[in-house]
């Protein structure tokens, strides 16, 4: 229990680091408050689910424990997310007020550090902590390295990074004036405030659009006990189904609900971030024999793997091509083994039910004594085991063998028992791996193999979003510095390289190789950077045109490009939101279809059709 609370507290602290990374006491207070609120709600939810299932089913089953585990898991995600989102929204609103105050004080003081320091008096506690760090960086020593360290940190907000970069550049290079004699620093601050407003709008829209899907996803799986009670109260024939195949459907419903819930959280961009660790795939990829085998595969594939290499670079994952191949094969084998185990478990359950259960005797001879029923069950199972590995006999042969074991004065009961034995022997012969099970196993193995590639595509999307923000920052830095006297391409590259994370390896490589071939280095930077985001090619074209037209004219269109990039980013965000909404709407209905349709309605239909078939058989016998 203490270990679980400690792990939860550590995960919450990592998330709060994005909002409050520079106040140990404040961070600890927020984390403890959120952790204990989560524990209390989780205990209450677990007890509520337990007593709900106990009240409905009057027993404690595996379904009850799975429901409790799912409820606790959901609470451990939703409650911290609600607290963290509330603090983040407070920080965003503090940013708006703080940036506006800094702008006004700067126009009054003409001193950026003093404006940053004095503007913090009227903001929230989290923003005051960030402002203190900004002030300490701008008035201290080694400012360049400290700004670079702040930008490279993953715990800091992107808008605070952009603000610090603009403040540093304006204080270092001097605040240039536009054609309308307005401060560039003030313009950039106002532009940053507009971006923060748009981010608040996007967050509110995302929370509003996807708010109800979690409830729609989780509700059906917690109502399975009620559906089961309704079904068994309506007809006792469903007892055998829920005791057998129904358990597998329950497990499938829980797995589907958990998968859909995780997918919805991905769409909402919530949850705890995982720290990348050394994977088993990377370990095996470094083994000598496997490494050589994968190298030969790579040579045989040739250009076919170029797209995967490009995707690896675009995703930013620090893993080799061999590691991805090992992960792909390993996932395919693991998923196929799980599917094979699932079907094998179903076959074993069916096999045991045929050989060891005889509940149909109660229906066939309801008026017989208990001793007679037990004897009939024993002889019935003995006959099934006798013909288990032999050819299927006829109904008359089964009736003859049955008369040798037990006397049944009722010919109709004898015929019904013989038919039941015959049907069980037919089902026993049909228990084997079927073609559609093999196809399903292959399909699931394919999905497992595709998962690492899907992760690369997902990470590529995250890198793409980070690349947009970095390009905006590059444009701000270039707009500030392009009029400076004596500015060179290498110096400008070094300035934007300080504030880059996604493009940092590409820009660093260009700087290192610039002396050996300037144009070739810039061309390579353009090609590599365009793979991460197409707008980077416009900046690279500007660097290529500097020698011909000069620094000022080469980057004259930076401001227009920045406005266009912002509009395109907003359009892509809206399109992505619509896609997320459509996909989430579809996914959220999967648990309901499985729970209500497969678990509740289909068994009713099957029993109804079976009852209709029995009625037709009785009518045929009466006609004879």
Give the DSSP E fraction (strand runs of 2 or more residues).
Answer: under 5%
The helix/strand class is mainly alpha
- Pattern of helices and strands: HHHHHHHHHHHHHHHHHHHHHHHHHHHH
Biggest sheet descriptor: none
Helix % is over 70%
Name the overall outline.
Answer: elongated
> Total helix count?
28
Q: What integer value in Å does the Rg equal?
A: 34 Å
| Total number of strands | 0
> For the terminal residues, how far apart are their CA atoms?
71 Å
Description:
There is one protein chain. The protein has 624 residues and is mainly α. Helix content is 81%, strand content 0%. It is built from 28 helices and no strands. The longest helix is centred in the N-terminal third of the chain and has 48 residues, at 62-109. The protein is elongated. The model is unreliable at 270-291 (pLDDT under 50).
In short:
With 624 residues, the chain is mainly alpha-helical. It has 28 helices and no strands. Helix 2 runs antiparallel to helix 3.
List keywords for this structure.
single chain, 624 residues, mainly alpha, 28 helices, 81% helix, 0% strand
What's the topology here?
Elements: H1 2-16, H2 24-57, H3 62-109, H4 112-119, H5 125-139, H6 143-152, H7 158-173, H8 184-209, H9 213-222, H10 224-234, H11 238-243, H12 245-268, H13 280-285, H14 288-301, H15 306-315, H16 321-356, H17 360-364, H18 370-386, H19 395-405, H20 411-429, H21 435-481, H22 489-498, H23 504-513, H24 518-532, H25 536-549, H26 551-554, H27 558-588, H28 590-623
């Amino acid at each position: 229990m203490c270990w679980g609370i400690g792990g939860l507290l550590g995960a919450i602290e990592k998330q709060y680091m994005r909002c409050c990374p520079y106040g140990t006491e404040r961070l600890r207070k927020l984390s403890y408050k959120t952790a204990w609120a989560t524990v209390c709600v989780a205990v209450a939810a677990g007890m509520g689910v337990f007593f709900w299932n106990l009240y409905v089913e009057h027993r404690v089953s595996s379904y009850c424990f799975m429901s409790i585990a799912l409820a606790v898991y959901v609470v451990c995600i939703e409650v911290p997310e609600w607290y963290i989102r509330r603090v983040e929204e407070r920080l965003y609103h503090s940013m708006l007020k703080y940036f506006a105050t800094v702008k006004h004080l700067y126009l009054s003081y003409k001193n950026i550090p003093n404006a940053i320091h004095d503007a913090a008096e009227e903001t929230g506690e989290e923003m005051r902590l960030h402002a203190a760090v900004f002030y300490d960086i701008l008035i201290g020593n080694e400012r360049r390295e400290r700004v670079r360290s702040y930008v490279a940190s993953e715990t800091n907000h992107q808008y605070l990074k952009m603000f610090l970069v603009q403040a540093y550049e304006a204080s270092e290079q001097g605040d240039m004036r536009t054609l309308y004699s307005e401060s560039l620093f003030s313009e950039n601050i106002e532009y940053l405030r507009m971006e923060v407003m748009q981010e608040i709008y996007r967050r509110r829209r995302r929370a509003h659009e996807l708010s109800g899907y979690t409830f729609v996803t989780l509700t059906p799986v917690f109502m399975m006990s009620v559906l089961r009670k309704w079904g068994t109260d309506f007809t006792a024939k469903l007892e055998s189904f829920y005791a057998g195949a129904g358990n597998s459907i329950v497990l499938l419903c829980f797995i589907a609900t958990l998968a859909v819930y995780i997918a919805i959280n991905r769409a909402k961009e919530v949850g705890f971030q995982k720290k990348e660790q050394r994977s088993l795939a990377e370990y095996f990829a470094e083994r000598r024999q496997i490494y050589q085998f994968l190298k030969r595969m790579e040579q045989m594939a040739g250009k076919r793997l170029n797209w995967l290499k490009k995707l690896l670079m675009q995703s930013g994952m620090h893993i080799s091509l061999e590691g991805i191949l090992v992960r792909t094969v390993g996932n395919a084998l693991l998923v196929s083994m799980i599917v094979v185990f699932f079907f094998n478990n179903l076959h074993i359950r069916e096999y045991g039910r045929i050989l060891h259960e005889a509940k149909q005797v109660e229906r066939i001879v309801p008026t017989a004594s208990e001793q007679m029923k037990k004897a009939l069950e024993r002889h019935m199972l003995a006959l099934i085991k006798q013909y288990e590995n032999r050819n299927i006999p006829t109904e008359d042969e089964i009736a003859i063998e049955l008369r040798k074991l037990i006397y049944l004065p009722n010919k109709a009961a004898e015929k019904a028992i013989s038919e039941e034995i015959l049907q069980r022997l037919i089902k026993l012969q049909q228990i084997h791996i079927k073609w559609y099970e093999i196809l399903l196993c292959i399909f699931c193995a394919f999905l497992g193999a595709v998962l690492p590639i899907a992760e690369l595509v997902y990470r590529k999307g995250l890198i793409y979003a980070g690349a947009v923000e970095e390009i905006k920052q590059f444009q701000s830095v270039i707009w500030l510095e392009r009029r400076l006297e004596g500015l060179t391409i290498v110096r400008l590259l070094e300035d934007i390289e300080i504030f880059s994370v996604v493009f940092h390896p590409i820009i660093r490589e260009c700087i290192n190789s610039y002396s050996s071939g300037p144009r070739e280095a810039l061309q390579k930077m353009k090609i590599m950077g365009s793979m991460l985001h197409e707008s980077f090619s416009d900046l690279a074209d500007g660097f290529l045109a500097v020698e011909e037209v000069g620094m000022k004219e080469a980057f004259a269109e930076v401001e227009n490009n920045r406005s266009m990039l912002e509009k395109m980013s907003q359009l892509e965000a809206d399109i992505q939101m619509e896609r997320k909404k459509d996909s989430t709407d579809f996914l959220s209905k999967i648990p309901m279809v499985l729970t209500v349709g497969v678990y509740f309605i289909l068994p009713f239909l099957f029993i109804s059709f079976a009852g209709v078939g029995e009625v037709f058989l009785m009518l045929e016998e009466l006609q004879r």
